[in-house]
Amino acid sequence: MAKLTLIIMTTYFFTSDLFAGGLVLNSKRLPVLTSVAQIRFTEIDIDAEDNTFIIIKVDGFRGEHFYEDEFLFMNDSLTDLEQYGGIWDKFLKDGHFHLACRKDETISIYKVRKGMELVSSIGTKESLGKHLQSKDIDRFIPVSGSGNFYYLLASGKRFPVNPVEFLVNFFSGGHGIGYAKPFLIEMQDDKCAKPRKLRYGGKIDESYYIKQVVQHEGFVHFLGFRMQEERAFGPDKIEPEPEILHHAAYDLKKKKVVKTHTICTKTPKVEKDKNNRSFYGPLSIDALDDNVFVAFSWIQRKLNVRPITTKDVNSTIFYWQYSNGLAGDVEKITGGFLPIAKVDSSGSVHILWVDKNASLIHKAKRDGKWSNDTVLVNNLDVDYSVIVRGVVTAEFDSADNLHIVYPLGGTLVHSVLKVD
């Protein structure tokens, strides 16, 4: 892995005109000595004591070499996570922020406070045995008040049910069509139980690719895409079916999926004129108990334009919720990019997005009614590489102050505000 030097110096500033709505409590500029276009992902987490942790992932090319690096910004300082092997996952457990890092065949779990405190470590070859490999593990799901007990979310290919496909898969040494299925593995200390299928409510002859996981109280919510794989052989060659945006809620006490929802069915495709392509953009999910709130985007972009800009892209933001025992209809919010759904402690839902004017917009849903759109920040650093990545992130602290990280002026800015 090529080394990228990333230096962040923190500058605090207070302003009355940066935000058009809401009360700004404080802002920090995080001067990053790399192009914003190289930032692949940012995400902010806040622990029970309202300490903030910002994950920054960067990638790009230096000459012919591709690099990836990950950093943790906390306590006004930056930690290069390469020495820990890179982030496998991050989560809150018993109110504390944790990182799961993988180095070689070992996954180590660190409690992050003023530094990195090792709390658990597993050798994946010995722990997972013949069931799975470490590369199959997608997420760590903590269980509060349970010591070193976790669920591991993993994905693995299953044999197809069609006899022709089965034979091709068998004689090709496993290179035929298989279906990606999710599994849950109970992990206590350094011991892993046998994987169990996550019965998400789909078909046996389809894959389920989980993209987002959020946990609140005793429920874990999975958001991803159900779809068939392309069958390139046999008498019944078919193209992949439409990707189905699908939600499944897992009850940690009952140890089973208790709710499933098909949210949206759209077909990613290249249009007939071959000049346009449509596909899902970034997804966002948040939860309060067993209530769940989802924002997603549908992007249409031109293929024959280089370099591509946001003016060559049309993106529509949609919203869906399951609340108080009822699943709502998908609502069209507006045109825009990078939707974020967040819920505060009162149950009010907040949607943020970036519009074509490079402004960060906010609206809230309270008592079943949407507020007007409010411009929070103007002139964000937005290009095509930014709008298809998760470069804007947000989270509420215990006082319902909204923390936002966004690209502005060639760097990242972390702002805290009271939204109207």
Describe the structure in brief.
By secondary structure, the protein is mainly beta. It is about 5% helix and about 55% strand.
Helices and strands in order:
Elements: E1 11-13, E2 23-30, E3 39-46, E4 52-62, E5 65-74, E6 77-80, E7 87-93, E8 96-103, E9 106-112, E10 116-123, H1 124-128, E11 137-142, E12 149-158, H2 163-171, E13 179-188, E14 191-192, E15 196-197, E16 207-216, E17 219-227, E18 243-251, E19 256-266, E20 269-270, E21 276-288, E22 291-302, E23 313-323, E24 326-327, E25 331-335, E26 337-343, E27 349-354, E28 360-366, E29 369-370, E30 374-377, H3 384-387, E31 393-396, E32 402-408, E33 411-418
Antiparallel strand pairs: 1-2, 2-33, 3-4, 4-5, 5-6, 7-8, 8-9, 9-10, 11-12, 12-13, 13-14, 13-15, 16-17, 17-18, 18-19, 20-21, 21-22, 22-23, 23-24, 23-25, 26-27, 27-28, 28-29, 28-30, 31-32, 32-33
What would you note in describing this structure?
The chain has 420 residues and is mainly β. Helices cover 4% and strands 55% of the residues. The protein has three helices and 33 strands. Strands 20, 21, 22, 23, 24 and 25 form a six-stranded antiparallel β-sheet that branches. It has a five-stranded antiparallel β-sheet with strand order 1-2-33-32-31, with no helix packed on it. The protein is globular and about 50 Å long. Mean pLDDT is 81; it is low at 1-18 and 232-237.
The number of helical segments is 3
Indicate the overall shape.
Answer: globular
| Beta-strand residue fraction | over 45%
Distance between the termini: 45 Å
The overall pLDDT average reads: 81
The description of the largest β-sheet is: 6 strands, antiparallel
Structural class: mainly beta
- Uncertain regions spanning at least 5 consecutive residues: 1-18, 232-237
